[in-house]
């Protein structure tokens, strides 16, 4: 699925950087019914993980009240050049990944 | 008696011009963006926070993907959309010579699929159709709207204007009653805009997804308790055409974000 990641391409060592992520997902709550009364089964992202050169720096659990196409923004300290890896995990075996690289001077 | 008549006449003279719907002069036309709060504006302005851009990304993939029995992609004929599709959406709905009537961008995509790709049409409001039209319309971002300039479209623009001015539904309201006469006021808590279709298909927070102008028109129609026209009906296309010609000169914003 499409994802939009905003990581600064360059940062100074020790600088606090903001990371913003947006991903496609319907986030169906599991509380809605169709016109003929059937329950629409829940289909949401349940967790999000961000790894910086393999080490986990941010994790979030997501719940049915979170809007479609979840947007998450968080901060970390730029320590070394390398790669951020993002992973979204959800219902029905949903899994999606994205990555972005950073140069630390 | 005479006094009462004079008062009635005075009231009529004062309120008369306001009741007669006047079209908004060109320099007073404002996009729905101007009616939004700072948070929603920020969301639209930042391409990494605008959820509509997810659909644009999907549309870019579909643009390059071969499909149909002709096994051709949009890109095989149109090449790089950044140049070939620039300004195109700003003049849609456009007149189709073969059909002898205007077609919307969604209908043009499906005509292209049927004729050149020999593929099945994408149903209205499906993710793929919205993604493709968002991708195409995104190439016109910043371009001024010119739809309705083609003289062949004149009767259809007029039809759309008549529909815009026509009262309908159990609430007996015409589009013009809100969007020409009462913009800048509020309906419940929400601002009434001029109804300028500058950013379609757009991401509506209420919908939690991207939607077409036709979807927006249909939800206004059910709002006034009227029977909404079907997707792709000549009436909706005419309304869409009139609205675009009414927004002439405003820059395209696709994909816009609206509350």
From TrEMBL, chain A:
Q: What domain of life does the native source organism fall in?
A: Bacteria
Q: Which InterPro entries match?
A: Ig-like_fold, Ig_E-set, SoxZ, SoxZ_dom
Gene3D superfamilies (alphabetical): Immunoglobulins (2.60.40.10)
| Pfam family for this entry, one | SoxZ
Looking at the record, the residues that make up the Sulphur oxidation protein SoxZ domain are 8-100
In its UniProt entry, what is this protein called? Sulfur compound chelating protein SoxZ
Organism of origin:
Bradyrhizobium yuanmingense
Q: What is the lineage of its organism?
A: Bacteria, Pseudomonadati, Pseudomonadota, Alphaproteobacteria, Hyphomicrobiales
Automatic annotation (TrEMBL), chain B:
Please describe the quaternary structure of this protein.
Heterodimer of SoxA and SoxX.
Keyword field = Electron transport, Heme, Iron, Metal-binding, Periplasm, Signal, Transferase, Transport
* Binding locations of heme c 1: 74, 77-78, 112
Record domain Cytochrome c: where? 54-140, 155-247
Query: Cofactor comment in the record?
Result: Binds 2 heme groups per subunit.
Localization, per the record, is: Periplasm
Q: Quote the Pfam families the UniProt record gives.
A: SoxA-TsdA_cyt-c (PF21342)
State the organism of origin. Answer: Bradyrhizobium yuanmingense
Tell me which NCBIfam families the record gives. thiosulf_SoxA
| Active-site residues annotated for this sequence | 220 (cysteine persulfide intermediate)
For this entry, the protein name equals SoxAX cytochrome complex subunit A
Q: What biological-process terms (Gene Ontology) are attached? A: sulfur oxidation
Q: Which PROSITE patterns does the entry link to?
A: CYTC
Signal peptide residue numbers: 1-21
Query: Which residues take part in binding heme c 2?
Result: 175, 178-179, 220
Q: What is its EC number?
A: 2.8.5.2
Q: What cofactors does this protein use?
A: heme
Q: Which reaction does it catalyse?
A: L-cysteinyl-[SoxY protein] + thiosulfate + 2 Fe(III)-[cytochrome c] = S-sulfosulfanyl-L-cysteinyl-[SoxY protein] + 2 Fe(II)-[cytochrome c] + 2 H(+); S-sulfanyl-L-cysteinyl-[SoxY protein] + thiosulfate + 2 Fe(III)-[cytochrome c] = S-(2-sulfodisulfanyl)-L-cysteinyl-[SoxY protein] + 2 Fe(II)-[cytochrome c] + 2 H(+)
Against InterPro entries, the record matches this protein to: Cyt_c-like_dom, Cyt_c-like_dom_sf, SoxA
Mention one GO molecular function: metal ion binding
**Could you tell me the superkingdom of the organism this chain comes from?**
Bacteria
Positions bound to substrate: 216
| GO CC terms | cytochrome complex; periplasmic space
User: Could you say which protein family the record assigns here?
Assistant: Belongs to the SoxA family.
